[in-house]
Amino acid sequence: MSTAPFTSPEKQESGAARAVNGLRDRMISGELAPGTRLSESRWTGPLDVSRNTLREAFSTLIEEGLLVRVPHRGVFVATLTPAQIADIYRVRVLLECTALRQAPADPPQAGLMREAVDEALAAAATGQWRAVGTANMHFHEHIVALAGSPRLDGWMRQLTAELRLAFAAAPEPEALHRPFVPMNDEIARAYEAGDPARAADLLHDYLLTSERIVLGLLP
């Protein structure tokens, strides 16, 4: 009879998966900016993994396009090109607008969308624009969550990490994030009013505007 202690699902997650999620979360929050060098000695401790496990996580994120390996120099957070950013927005239009248009009128996730909007409004009121950007990203992750697909949630998580890298390259965070706080609020209100089709139309216009502003603010 086994006497091994019970391990929760969270603990069963592999060290490499934890490291991937930890680094991706830091990109989404803006803590890791494009061009940042990631040394093994710096990150094994905070991520609580061995060097071999960290290398495995690096390889996964390199495949996702979030990191790049430069010969003889090391691993760096990726810097996106305008073409890559435009491609991200094409995927977002397909993913987010479809999820919102096809969603039930009043699922539990609507409350999470409202929480993200309120979080962005509060951060904007105090000029915390990086926090506004993070709240906005959470809002859009909650939109995709309306589809009820863990696989789509994972893809969206990768997209938001890539998008944060694009945001980080813009020199004016207020100009980048301020216009979209009221737009997210309008989208949420349309959805809360039981009109997902109108919410999806507003979201489509939002994404086209966002793409134009992001590309226009790049150095």
Please give a quick description of this structure.
By secondary structure, the chain is mostly helical. The chain has helices at residues 9-12, 15-28, 40-47, 51-63, 82-101, 109-125, 129-145, 150-168, 173-177, 180-192, 196-217; strands at 37-38, 67-70, 74-77.
CATH architecture descriptor of the largest domain: Up-down Bundle
Strand order, largest beta sheet: 1-3-2
Task: Classify the helix fraction into a percent range.
Answer: 55-70%
Structural class: mainly alpha
CATH C-level of the largest domain = Mainly Alpha
Q: Can you tell me the CATH superfamily of the largest domain?
A: GntR ligand-binding domain-like
Q: How many strands?
A: 3
- The residue ranges in which pLDDT falls below 50 over 5 or more consecutive positions are 1-12
**Outline type:** globular
Number of domains: 2
Give the biggest beta sheet.
3 strands, antiparallel
Average predicted confidence as pLDDT: 87
The total of helices stands at 11
- What distance separates the N and C termini? 64 Å
How much strand? under 5%
> Radius of gyration, rounded?
19 Å
| CATH structural fold name of the largest domain | Four Helix Bundle (Hemerythrin (Met), subunit A)
- The secondary-structure element order is HHEHHEEHHHHHHH
